[in-house]
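Why does this matter for the project? Reviewers at the last site visit asked to see concrete outputs rather than summary tables. In response, this paragraph embeds two records directly. Each consists of the residue sequence and, immediately after it, the corresponding structure tokens. Nothing has been edited or filtered.
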Amino acid sequence: MSGLKTIHLALPCMMALLAPPAPASNISELTLTFAGCAGRLSAQMEHQWLFSDPASERTEAHRAAMISLIEAVMPEDQGRQVLAHRIAAKQAHAQLLTRASFNQDDGDAHWALTRAEQEIATCLSLILT
């Protein structure tokens, strides 16, 4: 019974730690969009590195362009919140890529890959390539 009490008491703390940070209301939507894309492109690049995909160099250039866009629109005092948003997006995209690459359910793997590709395509539509 004491184990259940411990779980019951610790569960809200664990859920708070695992929840993605809520975007700060004072950050512009444009800044959040660029930050989310930079995070996704970081995850994509690292995933490509994992599989020795030569496309990683192109993804790295796209990521650098996205970071430049963030720097152009972000006020100096919002760096921490923007970084938190980038990290949350990177983690979410990495989970999609992992789900697509290492999933034994072919249908679910296909869905995850399609979703990841759509997210990257949306991001790439924001930059000149």
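We now turn to the second protein, recorded in exactly the same manner.
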Amino acid sequence: MNYGEIKRTDVANGTGVRVSLFVSGCTHHCKGCFNQETWDFGYGEEFTRETEEELLQALSPSYIAGLTVLGGEPFEPENQKALLPFFQRVRKQYPQKTIWCYTGYLLDQELWKDSRARCQYTDEMLSLIDVLVDGEFVQERKNISLRFRGSENQRVIDLKKSGRERGIICLDLV
């Protein structure tokens, strides 16, 4: 897996100050995407053990609320293969910090059910994520006043509650 960027102090992609990883590779190709260069799976730099160490170190300050992973598309199966062991390390080293993940796939229609995105890593990866922002970016539904999402169709989902309820439970962002 490759990645396009690491932000060590990001306040736009989740609650609190976060460390954000922008992975490469996306097959959605949403019209109006803000990060088109990350559609290419070969874009950026290789995600290595050294990259993981850099991210784990960046997560260490007490003022960092957690990790956000976006892209590109974290739930492309080849990206899940690389992200799952990394998420496991983050959870083990920083159990008090949250993991947010952005995906163009819909949780209830594609990640919980058979789809192109679903693979052997999906369920465990979802179990490690606290908040999932799902749904493709839709240019015609763009709304710059929304918190933590770009278009009105996207949902900010509390994955822990949703997993227990086996239904979509969105965060209250008021």
